[in-house]
Specification:
Helix content of chain B: 55-70%
Largest interface: A-B, 51 and 47 residues
Low-confidence stretches of chain D: 130-134, 136-163
Shape of chain B: globular
Order of helices and strands of chain D: HHHHHHHHH
Radius of gyration of chain D: 22 Å
Structural class of chain B: mainly alpha
CATH superfamily of the largest domain in chain D: NADH-ubiquinone/plastoquinone oxidoreductase chain 6, subunit NuoJ
Strand content of chain B: under 5%
Oligomer: heterotetramer
Largest sheet of chain D: none
Number of helices of chain D: 9
Distance between the termini of chain D: 63 Å
Number of domains of chain B: 2
Mean pLDDT of chain D: 71
Low-confidence stretches of chain B: 398-414
Structural class of chain D: mainly alpha
Order of helices and strands of chain B: HHHHHHHHHHHHHHHH
Shape of chain D: globular
Number of domains of chain D: 3
Number of strands of chain B: 0
Mean pLDDT of chain B: 79
Strand content of chain D: under 5%
CATH class of the largest domain in chain D: Mainly Alpha
Chains: A alpha+beta (368), B mainly alpha (414), C alpha/beta (148), D mainly alpha (214)
Radius of gyration of chain B: 24 Å
CATH topology of the largest domain in chain D: Four Helix Bundle (Hemerythrin (Met), subunit A)
Chain lengths: 368, 414, 148, 214
């Protein structure tokens, strides 16, 4: 004789504390075990791609900020790279270095948010979140010095950045680079060895590497499965071939591996920023000859970068006017969710939240 | 019955002011004068005294909750590298009052599908059992409400009633999150009650009495040292039973939003919060009394202060746990109770039984010997159990299908 | 550096399955007919010299007189990429194209997105529903003729 | 005079008794199974109150611990697991009504018989403060407990202080019960524990899903 309980369908979200925005998941539970899960998107859909068709290439930079709003710098970067590729613009070196510095700082900030909320999803009463937010504030302070904004920077332009870093930026950056490794150590001391974190994350949300590749997953999720794929190494854009850094890999492909890959990536990003700071040379941050109204020739271009959450790609089609004819964004958060159901089915409610947190999505980017 | 009550200074002082001075039990009247009532009216004096004491204890508990909420918020804020509430009153001490006013003026929402009677009764029920616990706690050398001869059992019984509130809230809301929270609350309670009771039996074997007054009286060496295993099990069990992190599954806000009190608002929600914090204080008071030698201390401070110091220390530890640890999963929590705590409690029972067989009425020296033996047993058994039940990677309940998974066509709209 | 395969290379590789394949002028793009797309996709994925195990992106473009779907493919082993473009027939009434979900699961959400916003129907997709907008939303907003 | 004899206890008794009977009636009349289970718990609680008034604190606490804290909670838990309960699930026809009524009448007859059979006089007199009976009670308990083994030691001698002695009997219900279980009725006690063990194993066998490893 078997005792059967009736499956229950619950809407997790769109107003749920752990859905990182307005994400909705229709989950069917048998008791506490997930039988089926279906993600539902679109609560934050703003038609960004359509809006691009009515803006100039530079104006659209401000809209890319609003996609992944915890990693605006990398959104800017992907877009200006696509425009540069489309229009054949050669950026000025100093601008490129500044873009790399800000992109790597942004990666650290994004991973800090990811780790903080991941632990929050695990049920830690906001303590790790507060710790990571404390350091994120310092990065935001740096960005504020750099461009005057704290969330939506719009710092980058085709050809470079819109203004040089002020003098006070460099000593502040030095202090940050000196202190941040100790803070990362502190997170590791607080989190990485915590027995409860280990039993809650190890072995959970496992997906084999070939499934991940087949499902177009990218970023830390892919690298946590041991796939050696980072566009900064494999398809170096900007000056990433001139800096030295390692590629943190894990092979377990579980929630803990994703967490630990993010932690290690923060250390590598610090290295990259240090290298950039050493190699940066004086000069204009944006070539004078690049017009403000970029008018690329007819054609299309696809530029992709390694954003904190994965491969961020912009496919731009130009009809020769001052506005893109069509712009499509390959959003890493969105495509990483393809495997969500595979990761969830068979696990419990609590695992669902943790696995979802380990993917690290941003609804601004998923829904665009 | 009256005589038993009169051992209690708290009771006697009020009673003898009211009852007739001719009464043989209060020869010489109370400290503030003679009895007010003529002879034969002692029952009225008894009633009034009882009500006064209940009034005092209930209000003291509520005030303590307010102070504790403030303290926990400040402490957690310090653990999290921030400041915490500091705007209302000195050091933000009036913040709980401001919160209370805010909660009282909020709209009281009852979901349309809710079972109104059950829904409205649930928040009341969370406070009642916790208040009842304070009835048997000796707060000082001669201050308690009632010296019940089955005090320890009474505490366990009353605390077990507390889960009704979660169940009724979950059922009354007719909300699936709330229902899941209620399930978890019951699972937690059923799992942790058994090891807790078994852990207490070790204490009872030494004292030979279930009265908390006697337990404190016999506690020449704090039982936390004499019964280290029992102390740990009871501490973990009470944290689980009052559903604080890392066992706050029933209201796990990142999973179940608010668990069983998802649908509550206004003062009903406030009652749930107050009830939970009050339960924390009650648990800390129980642990202080049973394992940390209650009000006993050295002479330079009054016994009330000693009790308070120990209480605050236990509360500090509980808050620290809350500020540090993530939440466990439901199967891990129950497995920890059944596979971890229950065998430890049974072992503790056997060891304590043997020791009390050797020393039926232990003196101070014998208690210290017991402490050493038990500490060694605790260290070895916890280490062994840790090896046996160490962290394991999670297991999927059902196979998730083939490697390349094609989602089935589903009905319904997005 | 991810090298782009030249369009002619790709075209010659798949010519056995898609005679109509035409090499594009930039980024090694190649145009493939919609009918031969499933076979081509399977070949690109399986053949060791192409080894396009990773589908990077699917973009749908409205060219007024026809719709085009652009696939960006990457081989993680050889570190090369290719762009496959598919015209969804002539006219704009009902653009249809076979789904490549049996080959790349990563197409699941991207095809749904293209269907939702551009109205390109992917035949064979097991769960082709709107993803950003709600069911019953009139029209497909990324089309050029979508009126606000 | 002592508090036991006063009107306070009478009033308390009536409140608790009415609560117990009302809750018990609601258990069988209310349509909602969840509420019926909750009222069952309330009836158990009121019974515990009656035990308190009878000076049997140990029984009262055990009643709360086992019946309210464990049995009823599990009943409610089961009710919640079974869906579609609020609609109510009425009796299955006249057969069940008659069978239930017959069982109730039989049970009531048994209780009434037991009540009349019991000799209440000594308890009544003890409650009223009759020293002779109290002394008899004290002596009886002392005879049952072999003196000197530390099991039961009453406060004072048989005739030293009757009031204290009577209170001693009541104060030590737990000890007396324990002695009775372990000494006089040890066989019944052990048989019951074997039955409980069998029930436990049976429950495990039922709950274990066939084919599932966990």
């Amino acid at each position: 004789m078997t005792l059967r309980t009736e499956p229950v369908t619950i809407n997790i979200g769109p107003h749920h504390p752990s859905t990182h925005g307005v994400f909705r998941l229709r989950v069917t539970f048998d008791g506490e075990v997930i039988v089926d899960a279906e993600p539902v998107f679109g609560y934050l859909h703003r038609g960004t791609e359509k809006l691009a068709e009515e803006r100039t290439y530079v104006q659209f930079v401000t809209l890319t900020d609003r996609m992944d709003y915890v990693a605006s710098m990398t959104n800017n970067q992907g877009w200006v790279l696509a425009v540069e590729k489309l229009a054949g613009i050669t950026p000025s070196p100093r601008g490129v270095w500044l873009r790399m510095i800000s992109a790597e700082l942004q990666r650290i900030a994004s991973h800090l948010v990811a780790i903080g909320f991941f632990l929050q999803d695990l049920g830690a009463f906001a303590t790790p979140l507060m710790y990571t937010m404390r350091e994120r504030e310092r990065i935001l302070d740096l960005f504020e010095i750099l461009c005057g904004a704290r969330i939506t920077y719009s710092y980058m332009r085709p050809g470079g950045v819109f203004q040089d870093a002020p003098q006070e930026f460099w000593p502040r950056l030095d202090t940050f680079l000196k202190e941040m490794p100790h803070y990362v150590d502190e997170y590791e001391r607080l989190i990485s060895g915590n027995e409860i974190v280990l039993v809650r994350t190890k072995g959970i949300g496992k997906v084999p590497a070939d499934t991940l590749i087949n499902a177009s997953a990218s970023g830390p999720i892919l690298r946590a499965a041991g796939v050696d794929w980072d566009l900064r190494k494999k398809d170096p854009y900007e000056f990433y071939d001139r800096v030295k850094f390692d590629l943190p890999l894990a092979k377990e492909s579980d929630n803990f591996a994703r967490y630990i890959v993010r932690i290690q990536e923060m250390r590598e990003s610090l290295k990259i920023v240090t290298h950039c700071k050493e190699q940066i040379e004086p000069g204009p941050v944006r070539p004078k000859e690049v017009p403000f109204l970029v008018r690329p020739p007819r054609g299309d271009a696809y530029a992709h970068i390694e954003a904190p959450k994965g491969e961020l790609g912009y496919y731009v089609v130009s009809d020769g006017s001052i506005a893109p004819y069509r712009c499509h964004v390959r959003a890493p958060s969105f495509i990483n969710l393809t495997l969500l159901r595979d990761m969830l089915v068979g696990w419990k409610v609590a695992d669902m939240i943790v696995t979802f947190g380990s993917i690290d999505i941003n609804m601004g980017e998923v829904d665009r | 019955m009256t005589d038993a009550f009169l051992e209690n200074a708290f009771f006697r002082n009020i009673y003898c002011n009211l009852a007739s001075s001719a009464s043989p039990r209060c020869a010489g009247g109370g400290p503030f004068g003679d009895g007010m009532f003529p002879a034969g009216m002692e029952w009225l004096a008894f009633l009034i005294t009882a009500f006064v004491i209940i009034f005092l204890v209930v209000n003291a508990a509520l005030l303590a909750v307010n102070i504790y909420i403030w303290g926990e918020r400040r402490l957690v804020a310090r653990l999290q590298a921030r400041l915490g509430p500091n705007r209302w009153g000195p050091y933000g001490l009036l913040t709980p009052i401001a919160d209370l006013i805010k909660i009282l003026t909020k709209e009281d929402i009852v979901p349309a599908a809710a079972d109104r009677l059950v829904f409205n009764l649930a928040p009341v029920l969370i406070v009642v059992p916790v208040l009842l616990v304070f009835a048997v706690i000796p707060f000082a050398s001669s201050t308690w409400v009632a010296d019940l001869n089955v005090g320890v059992l009474y505490i366990i019984a009353v605390l077990s009633v507390g889960s009704y509130s979660a169940v009724m809230a979950g059922w009354g809301s007719q909300n699936r999150y709330a229902m899941l929270g209620a399930f978890r609350a019951v699972a937690l309670l059923v799992s942790y009650e058994l090891p807790m009771v078994l852990a207490l039996i070790g204490v009872l074997m030494i004292t030979g009495s279930m009265s908390l007054v006697d337990v404190v009286h016999d506690q020449n060496v704090p039982f936390a040292l004499v019964q280290p295993l029992g102390f740990l099990i009871f501490l973990i069990g009470s944290v689980a039973e009052i559903q604080r992190p890392p066992f706050d599954l029933a209201e796990a806000e990142s999973e179940l939003i608010g668990g069983y009190h998802t649908d509550y608002s206004g003062i009903k929600w406030g009652l749930f919060q107050a009830g939970e914090f009050m339960a924390t204080i009650a648990s800390a008071a129980i642990i202080t009394t049973l394992f940390l030698s209650g009000w006993r201390g050295w002479g330079f401070l009054p016994s009330h202060i000693w009790f308070l110091i120990k209480l605050v220390a236990v509360l500090f530890a509980m808050t620290w746990l809350r500020g540090t640890l993530p939440r466990l999963r439901i199967d891990q929590v129950t497995a920890f109770a059944w596979k971890g705590l229950l065998p430890l409690a049974a072992l503790n029972l056997v060891v304590s039984g043997v020791l009390s067989f050797i020393w039926p009425a232990p003196g101070v020296a014998e208690l210290w010997v017991m402490a050493i033996v038990n500490l060694a047993v605790a260290a070895v058994s916890i280490f062994t159990l840790g090896l046996l039940l160490g962290p394991r990677p999670g297991e999927r309940t059902t196979p998730a299908g083939s490697a390349v998974f094609m989602p089935a066509k589903r009905e319904g709209t997005a | 550096m991810t090298t782009s395969l030249r369009g002619e290379q790709v075209a010659s590789m798949i010519s056995a399955f898609a005679h109509e394949a035409v090499a594009g002028h930039n980024e090694g793009s190649v145009w493939v007919g919609a009918e031969s797309w499933p076979a081509v996709a399977r070949q690109l994925h399986d053949r060791p010299e192409t080894d396009f195990k990773y589908l990077s992106s699917i973009s749908a473009v409205d060219y007024i007189d026809h719709f085009e779907v652009v696939y960006h493919l990457v081989s993680l082993r050889h570190n090369h990429g290719a762009v496959v473009k598919i015209r969804c027939g002539e006219g704009r009434s009902d653009p249809v194209i076979p789904s490549c979900m049996p080959v790349w699961r990563g197409a699941e959400l991207q095809e749904r997105e293209a269907y939702d916003l551009m109205g390109v129907r992917f035949e064979g997709h097991p769960n082709l529903k709107r993803v950003m907008l709600w069911e019953g939303f009139p029209g497909h907003p990324h089309r050029k003729d979508f009126l606000r | 005079m002592s508090i036991e004899g006063s009107a306070v206890v009478d009033v308390a008794f009536w409140i608790v008794a009415v609560m117990a009977i009302a809750a018990a009636l609601l258990v069988v009349t209310v349509r909602d199974v969840f509420k019926a289970a909750a009222f069952l718990a309330a009836a158990f609680l009121a019974t515990a109150g009656l035990f308190v008034l009878l000076r049997a604190e140990f029984l009262a606490v055990v009643q709360v611990l086992i019946y309210v804290g464990a049995v009823s909670i599990l009943i409610i838990f089961t009710v919640m697991l079974v869906r579609n309960v609020p609609g109510g699930n009425r009796t299955g026809g006249p057969f069940y009504v008659f069978a239930g009524a017959a069982a109730a009448v039989l049970l009531a007859l048994g209780i009434v018989y037991a009540a009349f059979k019991t000799d209440w006089t000594d308890l009544d007199q003890a409650a009223a403060g009759d020293d002779r009976v109290a002394a008899a009670l004290t002596g009886q308990y002392q005879a049952e407990a072999a003196p000197g083994d530390g099991g039961i030691e009453l406060i004072g001698g048989p005739a030293a202080d009757q009031e204290t002695a009577r209170q001693g009997v009541f104060r030590r219900t737990a000890n007396n019960l324990g002695t009775l279980f372990i000494r006089d009725y040890v066989l019944a006690f052990e048989v019951i524990s074997v039955v409980l063990l069998a029930a436990l194993i049976g429950a495990l066998a039922l709950a274990r899903e066939r084919g599932a490893e966990t």
